[in-house]
């Protein structure tokens, strides 16, 4: 078993009102100096078998067709090395 | 033989019954279609109704798009089957790439429910021929994810090809249903594909088909009479 992490973020040019709402709340909490917040999604996929290039390729296809909507979102796919090392 | 118009029910659909009723009032025969069934029962057109299919999990319309019924709808829409997506149905159509762009959360982050003034920009589609271009209509709007976005190239292309079908009427009192209610780019409320057989919009024509309820007007009925005429005259 290995964990693959897919991070999905709105493209930079897309307005993110949720991120803005979080950013605006920060001064009230005593956090200064944060000029922008963008909110995204993180998927953790527990993969059975080896995470080789073929497996990562399939996960990239999955991310592109389903986990992210590439009209509005960018994504990255990576193997979670920390989860790997803990075993 | 009257036209048979299919209405898809997904888990979480809310407006399938109202849509069937609107189809019947327009003089066509509504046919219930089920999300797990690839069979479209030989209908002449399909409506994807509003609601929160699959809980809007992941993104609104993202999971519905991969349902068995959508496999057939996507294939046949590309071959010319008339399809109307209302609200969640519009979201499904963008996720399925039958219409360009995408839907995001309203810019003000609130659910909105009100009567909305729209301007008909195109009476050239299968679903809007009973309107006239420039006509102002008033139909209910209710959604969380109603913000239409697309890149500048796509927006320019839509405008140039006359594929913006409805726009929110920006000027006027919000209390009277005017204004862009969700931050949609260029005030776009509805669009069509190149062939004009696929139309999607956020507001709800099926809730405005009888004078007794909704906005007190029947501004939604021409959607259904338009397609009926198209099918009968075909």
TrEMBL record, chain A:
Annotated family: Belongs to the PurS family.
Organism: Streptomyces actinomycinicus
Keywords of this entry: ATP-binding, Cytoplasm, Ligase, Nucleotide-binding, Purine biosynthesis
Record note on quaternary structure: Part of the FGAM synthase complex composed of 1 PurL, 1 PurQ and 2 PurS subunits.
HAMAP family linked to this entry: PurS
InterPro entries the record matches: PurS (IPR003850), PurS-like_sf (IPR036604)
Localisation: Cytoplasm
Record bears the keyword Nucleotide-binding: yes
Major subcellular site: cytoplasm
Protein name, as recorded: Phosphoribosylformylglycinamidine synthase subunit PurS
Catalysed reaction equations from the record: N(2)-formyl-N(1)-(5-phospho-beta-D-ribosyl)glycinamide + L-glutamine + ATP + H2O = 2-formamido-N(1)-(5-O-phospho-beta-D-ribosyl)acetamidine + L-glutamate + ADP + phosphate + H(+)
SUPFAM superfamilies: PurS-like
One term of GO molecular function: phosphoribosylformylglycinamidine synthase activity
From TrEMBL, chain B:
Biological process, per Gene Ontology: 'de novo' IMP biosynthetic process
Subcellular location: Cytoplasm
E.C. designation(s): 6.3.5.3, 3.5.1.2
Gene Ontology molecular function terms on file: ATP binding; glutaminase activity; phosphoribosylformylglycinamidine synthase activity
Active site: 87, 204, 206
Regions that span the bilayer: none
Record-level GO cellular component terms: cytoplasm
Signal peptide (UniProt feature, chain positions): none
Keywords associated with the record: ATP-binding, Cytoplasm, Glutamine amidotransferase, Hydrolase, Ligase, Nucleotide-binding, Purine biosynthesis
InterPro entries xrefs: Class_I_gatase-like (IPR029062), PRibForGlyAmidine_synth_PurQ (IPR010075)
Catalytic activity: N(2)-formyl-N(1)-(5-phospho-beta-D-ribosyl)glycinamide + L-glutamine + ATP + H2O = 2-formamido-N(1)-(5-O-phospho-beta-D-ribosyl)acetamidine + L-glutamate + ADP + phosphate + H(+); L-glutamine + H2O = L-glutamate + NH4(+)
Recorded metabolic or biological pathway in which this protein acts: Purine metabolism; IMP biosynthesis via de novo pathway; 5-amino-1-(5-phospho-D-ribosyl)imidazole from N(2)-formyl-N(1)-(5-phospho-D-ribosyl)glycinamide: step 1/2
Quaternary data: Part of the FGAM synthase complex composed of 1 PurL, 1 PurQ and 2 PurS subunits.
Described function: Part of the phosphoribosylformylglycinamidine synthase complex involved in the purines biosynthetic pathway. Catalyzes the ATP-dependent conversion of formylglycinamide ribonucleotide (FGAR) and glutamine to yield formylglycinamidine ribonucleotide (FGAM) and glutamate. The FGAM synthase complex is composed of three subunits. PurQ produces an ammonia molecule by converting glutamine to glutamate. PurL transfers the ammonia molecule to FGAR to form FGAM in an ATP-dependent manner.
Protein name, UniProt field: Phosphoribosylformylglycinamidine synthase subunit PurQ
Gene name in the database record: purQ
